[in-house]
Write a structure and sequence with these properties.
483 residues, alpha+beta, Alpha-Beta Plaits, Rossmann fold, 3 domains, globular
């Protein structure tokens, strides 16, 4: 899987579903003509630096040349739209990792956080809006010519409860200067809004691990064939008497997911995408399988009491609800790492996946041998996952750093903890108003260096270095080289 940074412009026609069939066709054709007529489109396509992804009611353009390319493109589109008052369009822009894939029908697709987040940003707007992720806006702020166009809107809650920082691009007759309805509603609920400066980059992590958002070069209305060797590990149920043990249950589920994601022959959905299916609520596994585009799901539960643990896991064919495998593990608490590994290998066997010697070794290698360190790590990880790069979540990031520092003190060889620690420091450094200091950046670098020393060739090491270069040093070429 070759990752690269894509500068994504997501476009859709507002109210498309309410149009008559012939009106839909006419508006799509008009929009397509406008987009293809822009200079940025023609230049990027001529250089082989453009991917075009139709989405039924619009499309996504992935520029692979310059972060400014999609912004310059929307300026051209916005000006041309003035001649088409019947066409109500909204647009969203984000820069983030993307990668190309090919399905069994030999159709080219693209996945990655760059596309996913660009769509989420666009979804925060109304007709006429050109919205940017905070990360893109921060890049543009380096150039005086853009500053007059950038209007910070704050945070918007999108799918799965994730909050993204959004900036409105408007001015000189471009865009829609009015606040989107979603932000007007926030103002009504809270008179005093603390504005955020967010670049929602943590989503990169879940998506890079699982690769969950696919768009066809033809159209998203063309159903992609679901791979037999595809799986989603749904959140496990916490059966412990102490509800505070939920973090431990989440940690067990996440480790099993991570182990499975190490198998190249298996498509695994990221944790971010499965979070919405929290345990305790009724689940329709067929619908979940269709929504996530997988053939199989894993369900389970964890019960922790004193120095004992019971883990139940079952593998289900989401296409027909057939139970393919189930097992209960009653062990000493210290054996929880072996349980996670055994479950992952049993699932891989059931799906008849090809397991290389290196993949088998990776699955059998526990994250740490210190259970207390694993507890600390398991408490920290969800704090970082939900905090992202939000300025309002700074306490969560600082708490996560505190927990991870304790974890690596207990186990100085805890590789995964160092990778998370590096990202936590980078996010504090990158978010405006947090801790943009040389000392904070040095802490991120130190964590990356330790991870590199522990496992120099691991994919997680390359990702940690790429994030440090990208978010800490703004060295985009260096980040791409790592990926």
């Amino acid at each position: 899987m070759k990752l690269e940074i894509g500068h994504v412009l997501f476009i859709d026609i507002v109210g498309y579903s309410k149009l008559l069939i012939n009106e839909q066709s006419e508006q799509i054709q008009t929009l397509r003509k406008i987009v293809r007529g822009t200079e940025q489109f023609r230049l990027a396509e001529a250089e082989g630096k453009l991917l075009r992804l139709p989405t039924g009611d619009g499309g996504a353009l992935v520029f692979r040349n310059s972060p400014e390319a999609p912004v310059l493109c929307v300026l051209e589109i916005s000006k041309e739209l003035k001649s088409h008052p019947e066409l109500h369009v909204r647009m969203g822009i984000h820069s983030g990792p993307v990668y190309e894939v090919t399905d069994l029908n030999e159709q080219a697709n693209i996945a990655g956080a760059g596309i996913n987040i660009a769509q989420r940003v666009m979804d925060c707007g109304d007709a006429g809006h050109i919205l940017l992720s905070r990360h893109v806006a921060e890049d543009l702020e380096q150039y005086p010519r853009w500053r007059g166009y950038l209007h910070n809107l704050g945070e918007c809650e999108v799918k799965h409860g994730v909050r993204v920082g959004v900036v409105n691009l408007s001015g000189d007759g471009v865009g829609n200067a009015a606040a989107p309805k979603k932000f007007q509603a926030i103002k009504k609920r809270r008179a005093h809004v603390r504005w955020a400066t967010v670049a929602v980059a943590l989503l990169v992590l879940g998506t890079i691990v699982g690769g969950t958002f696919y768009l066809s070069h033809r159209s998203t209305t063309s159903a992609l064939r679901v791979l037999d060797k595809s799986i989603a590990v749904l959140p496990f149920e916490n059966l412990s008497r102490d509800p505070d043990n939920a973090f431990f249950t989440d940690g067990v589920q996440d480790e099993i997911l991570t182990y499975l994601a190490k198998i190249a022959d298996l498509k695994v959905i990221s944790r971010m995408s499965v979070m919405q299916y929290k345990s305790g609520a009724p689940r329709n596994l067929r619908e979940i399988g269709q929504q996530l585009g997988v053939a199989h799901v894993v369900e389970g539960s964890v019960q922790r009491a004193a120095n004992k643990v019971r883990v139940n896991a079952q593998l289900i064919d989401a296409r027909n609800d057939a139970h393919l495998w189930a097992q209960t593990y009653d062990r000493d608490l210290a054996d929880v790492f072996a349980i996670q590994s055994e479950i992952a290998k049993a699932i891989a066997d059931q799906l008849q996946t090809k397991l290389s010697p290196n993949e088998k070794k990776a699955i059998e290698q526990p994250p740490t041998t210190d259970l207390a360190a694993f507890d600390l790590y398991s408490r920290a990880k969800p704090l970082l996952l939900t905090a992202g790069f939000s300025a309002t979540s700074e306490p969560d990031r600082r708490k996560a750093i505190e927990l991870l520092d304790e974890a690596v003190k207990r186990d100085p060889s805890f590789f995964d903890a160092y990778c998370q620690l590096a990202f936590a420091h980078e996010s504090l450094y990158s978010v405006r108003g947090s801790d943009h200091t040389p000392a904070r950046l040095a802490l991120a670098e130190a964590a990356v260096q330790t991870a590199t020393r522990l496992r120099p060739d691991a994919a997680e090491t390359h990702l940690a270095r790429a994030q440090y270069l990208y978010y800490g040093l703004r060295d985009y070429a260096g980040a791409l080289a790592e990926l």
